[in-house]
Amino acid sequence: MPGRRRAPSVPAMTSTTPFRVVVAGGGVAGIEALLALHDLAGDRVELTLVDAQPNFVYKPLLVADLFLRDRVRHVSMAEVARDTGVRLVPDVVASVDDGDRVAVTQGGERLRYDALLLATGVTSVPAYRHALTWDERSGNERIAGLLSDIEQGHARRVAFVVPPGPGWPLPAYELALMTAHQAWDAQQRPQITLITPEPAPLAVFGRAATAAIRAELELAGIGFHGCSYADVEKGHAATVVVHPGMRRIDVDRVVALPRLLGRPPAGVPADATGFLAVDAHGKVHGLRHVWAAGDGIAFPVKFGGLAAEQADAAAEAIAASAGAAVVPRPFRPVLRGQLLTGTSARFMRHAAGGGGGEGVVSRRPLWWPPGKVAGLWIGPYLAARDRTAPGEAASAPDGGIPLQTDLGPALEGAAGR
After folding, report:
1. What is residue 59's three-state secondary structure?
2. Where are the domains of the chain?
3. Is 90 exceeded by the pLDDT of residue 36?
4. Which CATH number does the domain 126-258 belong to among 3.40.50.1000, 3.50.50.60, 3.40.800.10, 3.30.450.40?
């Protein structure tokens, strides 16, 4: 695939036994890793996917599905396994013995491995007792009820809250903006407030995105409280106490993103909140044959595009261990996010970890295919499966830059379009 750094001068290793790779978890990171290993290592690896869910759900489109309908894609795990030449085990990895290189499922199956990639994701828990929690399980049902209340005039003041801790704030912006526009369509003008620990709107994407999103919030009449932490008190309605300053905001409804906790298998070292410490290539600290990628690792930003990048770094390292002619590259976070505002989409790109920076924001795609998850393998894979999805096409239009290339300075000319 274009953009992959291979090492053709490295002599091919031969073995009568394929290198056994077990991937635990079939979310974005797990599928990205499977596709990468299938391409990079081919017959050198024997791939096993362990996931109890029957379908891969394209979670970044869950908010869009609430407002636009029929956008969320489901791909059966059986089809993913078929497309990647993988053995599928419909179970969950419960424990790991890295000394013997054995992963044990909840059902008791012992899976021997030469490399184990943990893409087990996170568990979401309510951050506030007196708030509606939006998450992947039942968040849309709760928000649908809220939207009905807004349209009937029963909820005139709504706060959207991003809790502190590792996570991904973008859904709160989409929920607030799209709620405002849907309310307008119903001839309602609710008072909407967004409260977040971020210093500025989507600050992680850089100054250009912050300015553009701040303008979107102002246009939609949404109040913004940055560098803020909320307590939610329940009275006749609800009161949000914003810290610092102890400002009290009376509202009819509070919608909060959840707190996230890691869920490592037994035998895998993790921090107090269940997240895994890894090196720049995804190797889990303290273990010899275990890698990890995705939301379950100890990285403050949880995002599908970053999960794919982490999976790429781990897959390259594993492929090299299997003898493939690949020079493993370390994880270098580049944020590529698509924000749905209710009237259009904003594409944002920023090389994270540099402490601020301008970044790039555009109304035109900054990568191709222009999916919500910009993964080197999973993006083209999903686009190829569903050419009829809104915003997807077989080839990039003018201004769409293939993800496989180094975006770098080429994006500057697209800024603001």
Report:
1. helix
2. 19-123+260-321, 126-258, 334-408
3. yes
4. 3.50.50.60
